[in-house]
Amino acid sequence: MCTKSLFLRMCIWRNSTYEQETFAPSILHKLAVIEVPIHSLAGYVVLFKTPSRMESVKWMIGAYLDLFLSALSTQFFLLPAAAGHSQGLYTFIGIPVKWQAYMFISAICLAGVSILGFFESRFNAVVRGRGMSILKSKRRLIYIGGHYIYAFVFILPITFTPPDQTSGKFYVRAMLPCVPQEIFDHPDFFVYAIDITLLTWIIGVSSVVISSECLYFFTRIVIFLSSTKAKSQKTYKLQLHFFIALTIQISIPLLVVICPIGYIVFAFVASHFDQALNNIALNFMAMHGLISSAVMLTIHRPYREVILKMFCYTCFYEKLQRRSVHTEGTVVVVSNHRI
């Protein structure tokens, strides 16, 4: 126990607002008020206004992860210790903290698998020229379905084997001597694991494998689109523009997740504890779905046109067109004919 605490290179506690368990809810619960209408709007547009050529982006709503963090289960983790507690609707209705932690880690993995599914779908449609549904291809169904199943089960070995909570709290208390005692006295405080080696390996290997697969499909698509294979120039441009738009749609929100995950990995590897950065990282991650939906609605022209029509832009524009103004010398003639 004491030996482990010696390996913690830095334990920082400033007793600031950013370190308190109330910091994340004070921001994320308010953020949820913005997220719900934006995700509802994005869901409506995607489900009912999506052109047939854009069916492959229906999964890009990306709302669950940030709604989970902002409203359902706001996390207060003492990283690099696998311990902490949750606040939100799930806690209010009595879902155990360990299952909330399981859902949180699984949600991050599911986001990665969804991105992998996008690149795999684009690879089949662009490179292989077979834009078939996953359900119509057994091999694709096994490949993508297997990844989704893995996202739900890969963390279960840790979830089903939590340590004795009394000894676990003593262990984490010795590991993080700078943390106030009232944090450990919280009634929902839970130690997910004492030895984080297995947890680190499971998450690390999963991240590397999924990232490598995404990089493979992305590289193959880029090489294909940059080649001079015989195909219609119009088709080539459509494929290229569509792929660029979808890549932007994914890349911007992805950075919102990569940055905090990068810090979390650093905290584990460097044995660095700074609760202010822990809280900020989780807050930052909670914006993933919001940014994803906003980018989706603006980057694709069909979605953008639907949104503009919904806010009466088209109606306003047509009125301006009908009310054309002609200047003849110093006389201004206003006509109300339809253009």
Automatic annotation (TrEMBL):
This protein's UniProt keywords: Membrane, Transmembrane, Transmembrane helix
Recorded superkingdom: Eukaryota
InterPro entries in the cross-refs: 7TM_GPCR_serpentine_rcpt_Srh (IPR019422), Nematode_rcpt-like_serp_H (IPR053220)
Pfam families: 7TM_GPCR_Srh (PF10318)
Spans traversing the lipid bilayer: 59-79, 99-119, 140-160, 189-219, 240-268, 280-299
Entry-linked PANTHER family: SERPENTINE RECEPTOR (PTHR22941), SERPENTINE RECEPTOR, CLASS H (PTHR22941:SF27)
Name this polypeptide is given: G-protein coupled receptors family 1 profile domain-containing protein
Species this protein is from: Caenorhabditis latens
